[in-house]
Amino acid sequence: MQTGTPLTQRLAEKPPGSPLRLAFAIAGALFAVFFALEAIFGRLALVFGDSSDHWDLEAQINFRLALVMILLVAYLPAAYAIGARGARRTVEELLPFLRARSDASQLTANSGRFDPVRLRRAGWIGVAYGFVIPLWTDRSIGAWFLWRHSIEAIFQRGLVLMIGWFVGRFLYSVWAESRRLSQIGRDEVRVDLLDLRCFAPLTRQGLRYALLVVGMISILALNLFEYDKPGLLTVVVVADALALAAAATALLLPLRGARQAISTAKRSELDWCDSELRRARAALTSQSPPSTTATLADLVAWRGVVGAVPEWPLDAPTLRRFVLYLAIPIGSWLGGALVERIVDLVLR
């Protein structure tokens, strides 16, 4: 491994176990730190109630928000690793369909790897957005005056910066790798208009990226039940709307190059059919045998077959699966509301 390779990239290539275990490890460590701080500062009684059932609503809300934010911090590095691993697997699956001139070894070596400088830049942009979020939710310049806040709110400030860092890097990895796969689909893959299964690995990677983005939306949707928190609902709704757009982009961007390649191949084949049809028509008009062995009916039938080939390598099952992915955040929101109701009943 070369010097200077980002930690997240090293984890993506050789994570300690599976990405899921990585997420559990991060979540476990953060939960342990958070509960230890709550116990040290005596805040658990305010959240869960003491023997007199005294508890603080604001502390309870901040406690739940911190738990959701920990889940998001743990999820994002694992999503990054899953996306990078999937990109390498996608390139390997495309190798049998590459053109003879393609440099397979170079394509494989570059997959799942990103420019460290641009990764850091994306992370810092995310941190900048994370810095603004408490200012918006609290509607006060004192949102970052940490000495004014409870331990839950202070912990949230640290988590929101971590989330911004990981979100920026994750979204950049999706965008950069999708563009790379799009270029491979456009320039390197042989197009067979009768069998578009050569682009199936790109479709699967697009769905994988869409699912990873939807997973981020689902965790954010757990915060929708906190409608009493000033400004939080707006932040979550805007973030979810942007993430939904990112999910659709994540699905289609890896396939854009394949669409261009299919469109070019179709146009070339249709032009040939039109040329042959004109020649066959001219021969038929002059009552002389056509110069080609293809009959007029064969050409018309072949042109219809070519014209019916979809330019996007997306079939009905793929679209249904994507729609089902988009329904996951709704279940997450309903689950968050149900959990809130149960907690309220327990604490009454």
The end-to-end span amounts to 56 Å
> Helicity range of the residues?
over 70%
Q: How many alpha or pi helices?
A: 12
Name the structural class: mainly alpha
- Beta content comes to under 5%
Biggest β-sheet description:
none
Brief summary:
The protein is mainly α and 348 residues long. Helix content is 74%, strand content 0%.
Note down, in words, how this protein is organized.
This protein is an all-alpha fold and 348 residues long. The chain has helices spanning 7-13, 19-40, 44-48, 57-94, 104-110, 116-138, 151-187, 200-221, 232-252, 256-285, 296-307, 316-347. It starts with 6 loop residues before the first helix and ends with a helix. 36% of the residues are buried. The mean pLDDT is 79.
What order do the helices and strands come in, and which of them pair?
Layout: H1 7-13, H2 19-40, H3 44-48, H4 57-94, H5 104-110, H6 116-138, H7 151-187, H8 200-221, H9 232-252, H10 256-285, H11 296-307, H12 316-347
